[in-house]
Write a sequence for this structure.
């Protein structure tokens, strides 16, 4: 399945792109997607993850909904989803 990832601020600089479409396996979670972004730049997961939690300075929005209100990093993704990853200060 394909998922579109939109990266803002320092993240798009690390990825060398504002948006990336990734092919991910069925059952992929937000955490799996973040780990997959490590193939684009190994620094991205290091910045976004603090163990099994999202770095408190970042927000992940799937199809317009903050994952905080879903299942957090364990939110399942579906084909065609759009995921925005940004620093909280950028969204506020």
């Amino acid at each position: 399945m394909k998922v579109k990832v939109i990266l803002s601020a320092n993240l798009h600089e690390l990825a060398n792109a504002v948006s990336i479409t990734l092919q991910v396996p069925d059952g992929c979670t937000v955490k799996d997607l973040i780990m997959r972004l490590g193939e684009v730049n190994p620094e991205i997961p290091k910045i976004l993850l603090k163990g099994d939690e999202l770095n408190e300075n970042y927000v992940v929005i799937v199809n317009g909904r903050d994952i905080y209100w879903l299942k957090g990093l364990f939110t399942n993704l579906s084909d065609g989803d759009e995921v925005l990853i940004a620093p909280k200060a950028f969204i506020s």
Observations:
- DSSP finds four helices and seven strands in the chain.
- The radius of gyration is 12 Å.
- The first helix runs from residue 10 to 15.
